[in-house]
Amino acid sequence: MVEYENASSEVRHIYDEIMQTRQTDYVNNFWRALAHDPITLKRTWESIKQIMAPGALDPLTKELIYIAVSVTNQCGYCIASHTASATAKGMTPEVFSELMAVIGMANETNRLAAGYQVEIDARYKPV
Amino acid sequence: MVEYENASSEVRHIYDEIMQTRQTDYVNNFWRALAHDPITLKRTWESIKQIMAPGALDPLTKELIYIAVSVTNQCGYCIASHTASATAKGMTPEVFSELMAVIGMANETNRLAAGYQVEIDARYKPV
Amino acid sequence: MVEYENASSEVRHIYDEIMQTRQTDYVNNFWRALAHDPITLKRTWESIKQIMAPGALDPLTKELIYIAVSVTNQCGYCIASHTASATAKGMTPEVFSELMAVIGMANETNRLAAGYQVEIDARYKPV
Amino acid sequence: MVEYENASSEVRHIYDEIMQTRQTDYVNNFWRALAHDPITLKRTWESIKQIMAPGALDPLTKELIYIAVSVTNQCGYCIASHTASATAKGMTPEVFSELMAVIGMANETNRLAAGYQVEIDARYKPV
Amino acid sequence: MVEYENASSEVRHIYDEIMQTRQTDYVNNFWRALAHDPITLKRTWESIKQIMAPGALDPLTKELIYIAVSVTNQCGYCIASHTASATAKGMTPEVFSELMAVIGMANETNRLAAGYQVEIDARYKPV
Amino acid sequence: MVEYENASSEVRHIYDEIMQTRQTDYVNNFWRALAHDPITLKRTWESIKQIMAPGALDPLTKELIYIAVSVTNQCGYCIASHTASATAKGMTPEVFSELMAVIGMANETNRLAAGYQVEIDARYKPV
Known about the structure:
Chain A is mainly α. The first copy, chain A, is 67% helix and 0% strand. Chains in contact: A-B, A-C, A-D, A-E, A-F, B-C, B-D, B-E, B-F, C-D, C-E, C-F, D-E, D-F, E-F.
């Protein structure tokens, strides 16, 4: 992992931006691993910064969606880091519980729909 | 698929409840396929009814999470039906766009985290 | 797709073996598509023939496991073809219903275990 | 994790039922983690109890299907716990070997079918 | 889908760049669907343009990797479009056959490794 | 795991072939775990040997494809072992970086294509 002290000025600039945007003095392992490839580091950070900013959806809801994807994919790192982020952004135990219940149920009915070979209802098809 | 006219009273009762809860006169293909197994129909409907009811998360946010799971799993039926449900519950084109962007990005970084074999930061580990 | 009439003798030999083993005069699309690559056709068929033969598990149970994997992966072709095979081998509607229920539940609890970041119990770890 | 001593009477009741149904004095981590949300604990346990009970399929076959899903999804916790359950229910090394072989092969041919873009045979389509 | 005639100048500019970069007069459905959200269209195109450009890996090898991911995820659209792109970039039937064989085998051994709960060899762990 | 000293002559023969083919004196955990089932060990090794041999694709490119599948599936063991194999076969840091970028992007656009319910362009459909 690339530590701040050993980083190029290009990488340091992104580390600074991550810490400033997130109002923290900690750069997590994901970014320090990615820093071996400054091009991917920069592109990924700029995409994340744009996508996770407040918009039509608030930042906490975006974290919940991130967790839903990460849990479905069984990505241990992403589950741990985004659960921490969501908690920092105000996820209560009640929200976490309901989030987990929806994720579990969706994964279940996704397979029932596939296994029963259910055809898409005419009214649900995109025009 | 089991049509209302040919359904047992047990299945009809669930169809009635689905239509009443959702304030519609349409029972979609998923339930009519599941109705071949009244036990699974009943259990799945009761779980869905409980999980998708308003709580710490509002019904639209729950639909967005459902879509996130379904898109990650490439479940065509579920994507179509829950996109329709979310739209009926007020999902705007702006919300849809941001939802898709977050889902896409999460699926990307899930793989970067795995491929770079990133270890979970000590501070993200559950106590 | 490679039809019997146009197939090389090498491919015809495998088609013959498929029809004989399965006691049918029909070679399904999967094999006719694979026949563009006789090496993969041969290796895949020989593996399938060995793996799906009666052993400690009977052929129907093996088909049920095949369906469980195919449904979890959302593979439309495989779901359709192995549901047909399982039915031909005696899968009743009751067995199908229970199979679907187990597949759905396993997909649900797989995500609950991941999302709650449950650690493996000491007693479940391989020695 | 919620230990028996600190659990509410509602949670204790479910722990008791789990231990009684499984004829053990051990409640595994999955349930103790889920107990933070008694509603999900109760719904999940009641679904599992209903689904995994003997029926058209025997309990061991149901465990094998559970393992097939868990392995396909790369769920470490679920693989470990259901392999232990299956072993307790009589899974022999021979059954385990054949199970693994079928799971592996199904995951392989699922991708060959997708990559070769094989169309579903008319005779395999649901009526 | 957003057609060129009805597109904003911002979207047209990206369509022009896609056609120029790929030396074609056709903009495929993926981009025309994404154009409903010009921000995601722009970010996705600029990322793709950067990532798929010749570098340490040649463009055809990058397409093969794209196909490997798409087949593993069972994404029908992506399999069809990237198989077409790879063919246009010189993928021979022999390369396609070997690609499919490797994808299939990797999906198989991924599950054997998981199901047998194989621990990572000390020498394979990242330093 | 089955060690060489305790292995049957049948298993030893395969261990010898693995070490000879790979020009190493190390048999990794995957094979030693699989050796509990000599039939699967033999079939898997012979398939791997055939598929990963130089052909229309060179061995390094095949390893890159293996990594793409393993990362998409979140298989920790396979990511670690095939990253080591690819490095031994000459994968440079630049190739690794580009590989990761393509895998990440493909996983992202796979979901955009699914979520936007993009239809396959007529020209991309297999004839």
